[in-house]
Amino acid sequence: MGMEACHYPKHKYRKLSWAFDAVYQPVETPFQQLVTSLGVQFISGFELFFHQGVDAFFIFTGLSVKDEDSLRETLSKSIIDKEKSTIATSISR
Predict the structure, then answer these.
(1) Phi then psi for 64, rounded to 5 degrees?
(2) 90 Cβ contact list (under 8 Å, min separation 6)
(3) Could you give the 3-state DSSP secondary structure of residue 83?
(4) What is the chain's pLDDT, residue by residue, as a tens digit (93 residues)?
(5) Which DSSP symbol is given to 18?
(6) Measured at the alpha carbon of residue 83, what is the angle toward residues 9 and 76, in degrees to the nearest 5?
(7) Which of 49, 60, 85, 93 has the smallest C-beta neighbourhood within 10 Å, fewest atoms?
(8) Using CA atoms, how far apart are residues 63 and 65, in angstroms rounded to an integer?
């Protein structure tokens, strides 16, 4: 579908009970904005990124993440801070 445009007819999204985006950065995408504006439950690509990391950590170390909520919050803040920094840098050029 791409990040800049959603080519699937917009009226068909209303029939969905949920939608998923595999893009994890930026956290908010045009697709997310579209489907949530139509009241469709949305699962972000960040969740894919997060759970892949948690599962990979377990596979490679045999250890489980003890506090997924804290890890999710830290990673989410880090990605959002990076996005803000990237935007500020591109504006100053």
Answers:
(1) -95, 150
(2) none
(3) helix
(4) 445 556 778 888 888 899 988 887 787 888 889 899 999 999 988 888 889 999 999 999 999 999 999 998 888 888 777 766 655 555 555
(5) E
(6) 90
(7) 93
(8) 7
User: Taking Cα atoms as reference points, which of 49, 51, 54 lies closest to residue 23?
Assistant: 49
Paired sense of beta strands 41-43 and 18-20, if any: parallel
Contact 13, 33 (CB under 8 A): no
Place of tokens 């377990």: 58
| Dihedral, CA of residue 51, residue 55, residue 60 and residue 61, to nearest 10 | 100
3-state secondary structure of 42: strand
Name the one residue in this structure whose structure tokens are 């697709």. Answer: 31
